[in-house]
Amino acid sequence: MKILRNIFNRYSFTSLLFYLSILVFIIAFNFSDNRSGGWYQQFMPDLNGQPLSDVIFLDSLKGFAITDNNFTNDTGYIIKTTNGGDNWNIVYSDNRDFKAIQFINLNTGFICGADPFTGYNF
């Protein structure tokens, strides 16, 4: 009986609760780094190091992205996905500076930007 009284002593029970909470925190933190589901890394086609300037999805699967033309004689890209971003394909490339993309419906979209040589907006 004395052993049980020592185990369930107010001070030892508080210590046990403290260490148990630390253990639970460590286990929970480690499971948060285990990405078994949810987010995962996507890979893009080779865009010559061009950063994306705009991305738009028309639904959960179909989306478009465009790149800036940051340097002289560089290429701007329009890329498309039909499977939620798992695969991207280059649908158009030109020596233009694409800035923004917008769709008014599923079939009609617009891209704006500027010609890097003349500065003319399109």
Number of spatially distinct domains: 2
Low-confidence sequence ranges: none
**Total strands:** 6
- Ends distance: 87 Å
Shape: elongated
Helix content: 10-25%
Sheet-strand content, in percent, reads 25-35%
Global mean pLDDT: 77
H-E string: HHEEEEEE
- Provide the gyration radius in Å: 27 Å
Trace the largest sheet across and list its strands.
1-2-3-4
Structural class: alpha+beta
Distinct helical segment count: 2
Largest sheet: 4 strands, antiparallel
Account of the protein in words:
With 122 residues, the protein is α+β, with helices and mostly antiparallel strands. It has 2 domains: 2-32; 52-114, no CATH class. It contains 2 helices and 6 strands. Strand 1 (52-57) and strand 2 (63-67) form a beta hairpin. The radius of gyration is 27 Å and the shape is elongated.
Please describe the structure with a list of short key phrases separated by commas or semicolons.
6 strands; 2 domains; alpha+beta; 30% strand; two-stranded antiparallel sheet; single chain; 122 residues; four-stranded antiparallel β-sheet; 2 helices
